[in-house]
Write a structure and sequence with these properties.
Length: 111
């Protein structure tokens, strides 16, 4: 299950399950909420996400594209070693800003 939180001017989506086909519909609804409030400042918190499936990678790239088109950004934070490897091997980490900690990702929107 994934949830949306507000940290100052930044929206944070996080959850405790894999980023897979089952999660994409739920995540898309959360993204729609974020986008409805103007240019998105969004961090996807991967702290509790054990695995990223190819469908999840596609969703991240699509979400990033939607955010960018609207003048916003999507950034990733706190990926575990397996998720970091998945992001690196698929080169998704070259397309989205990634941070070791949530606080760094959130703070990056104020710079």
């Amino acid at each position: 299950m994934f949830k949306l939180e507000k940290k100052g001017i930044v929206d944070v989506i996080g959850g405790d399950g894999p980023l897979d086909t089952d999660a994409v519909e739920e995540l898309s609804l959360l993204l729609d909420q974020v986008i409805s409030n103007g240019p998105p400042r969004l961090v996807f918190d991967l702290t509790q996400v054990p695995f990223i499936h190819s469908t999840g990678l596609e969703w991240l790239l699509d979400a990033h594209g939607r955010c960018t088109t609207l003048g916003g950004r999507l950034k990733l934070a706190s990926a575990n070693p397996l998720c970091r490897d998945i992001l690196r091997i698929t080169a998704v980490d070259h397309q989205l800003a990634t941070f070791d900690e949530l606080i760094g990702a959130v703070g990056s929107f104020t710079r």
